């Protein structure tokens, strides 16, 4: 679908302006060229759009939109049974929590993680596919589908419902269909999850996120109870905390993390427990110290009553 309105990326509006001039005396060659810039349509389609609309540029744009919509639906139907084993994980953080530099005014956490699949590794590495994955994760983060009464801060969302979720340029489903029409490969939204922080009067929540080459993603919900709330106004504390949070998210993603503190039967299984892993992602002298001990030391250093990873999600393309 052709887009002329604003899109939101990482909380900031990106204006996509029309690429053509409204001056009426442009030549047919110039109009065809501008139609192609605007829509990525083949030259034959751009010419046909002008012919069908007696040279009216605005009408030609609308004609191309409708034509792309129809051809996209037809291509999507044709390739819908093809396997989609490649793809990307995408994360969007809408609100980062107490003291966060990411829209922290509310003090809440709101973030999303999605997996978008395609047929080939080549397509998964294209800018268009990455942009689509990012757009969908942002739409999910802005959605109001979280179940407030759930016991978990993570809510698994219905893919079918998300495909019908409205967006400025249509629906999530139409965004996917549009790209299928352009690249000719099957694309599917495999899963999506929304993270929102619990309501608490004495515990502060923040989110840590990390993506490794788009193939592995982690969202960690961090809980803190500072002895004094003024700590969140201390730049040194926030800087130190952000470094720790990023290392925790990288640790969650970098290891095959399955749990936070649960005991496992074997030494190999213990490596899947976050708190028992050597904190390699923080580096330095902490690289050989278990995550649990580093968190205890950090908590003591800043005089916190609590510092913990209270929940997390670790996703890898093609793996449950």
TrEMBL record:
SUPFAM superfamilies (UniProt xref): Elongation factor Ts (EF-Ts), dimerisation domain, UBA-like
Main location: mitochondrion
Signal peptide: none
Assigned keywords, A-Z: Elongation factor, Mitochondrion, Protein biosynthesis, Transit peptide
GO CC, alphabetical: mitochondrion
A Pfam family of this chain: EF_TS
Family per record: Belongs to the EF-Ts family.
UniProt-recorded name of the protein: Elongation factor Ts, mitochondrial
Protein source organism: Lentinula guzmanii
């Amino acid at each position: 679908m052709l887009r002329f309105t604003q899109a939101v990326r990482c909380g900031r509006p990106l204006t996509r302006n029309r690429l053509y001039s409204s001056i009426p005396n442009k030549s047919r060659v110039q109009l065809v060229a501008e139609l192609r810039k605007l829509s990525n349509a083949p030259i034959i389609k751009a010419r046909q759009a002008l012919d069908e609309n007696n040279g009216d540029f605005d009408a030609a744009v609308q004609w191309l939109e409708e034509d792309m919509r129809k051809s996209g639906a037809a291509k999507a139907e044709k390739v819908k049974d093809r396997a989609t084993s490649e793809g990307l994980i995408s994360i969007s953080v809408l609100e980062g929590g107490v003291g966060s530099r990411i829209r922290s005014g509310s003090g809440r956490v709101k973030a999303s993680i999605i997996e978008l699949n395609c047929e080939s590794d080549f397509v998964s590495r294209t800018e268009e596919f990455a942009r689509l994955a990012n757009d969908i994760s942002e739409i999910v983060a802005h959605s109001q589908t979280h179940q407030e009464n759930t016991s978990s801060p993570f809510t698994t969302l219905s893919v079918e419902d998300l495909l019908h979720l409205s967006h400025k340029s249509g629906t999530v489903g139409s965004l996917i269909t549009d790209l299928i029409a352009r690249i000719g490969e099957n694309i599917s939204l495999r899963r999506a999850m929304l993270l929102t922080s619990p309501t608490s009067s004495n515990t502060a929540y923040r989110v840590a996120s990390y993506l490794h080459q788009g193939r592995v993603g982690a969202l960690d919900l961090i809980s803190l109870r500072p002895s004094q709330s003024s700590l969140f106004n201390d730049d040194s504390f926030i800087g130190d905390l952000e470094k720790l949070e990023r290392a925790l998210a990288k640790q969650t993603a970098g290891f095959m993390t399955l749990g936070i503190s649960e005991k496992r039967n074997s030494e190999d299984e213990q490596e899947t427990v976050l708190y028992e892993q050597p904190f390699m992602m923080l580096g330095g002298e902490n690289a050989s110290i278990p995550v649990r001990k580093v968190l205890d030391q950090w908590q003591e250093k800043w005089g916190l009553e609590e510092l913990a990873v209270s929940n997390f999600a670790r996703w890898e393309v093609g793996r449950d």
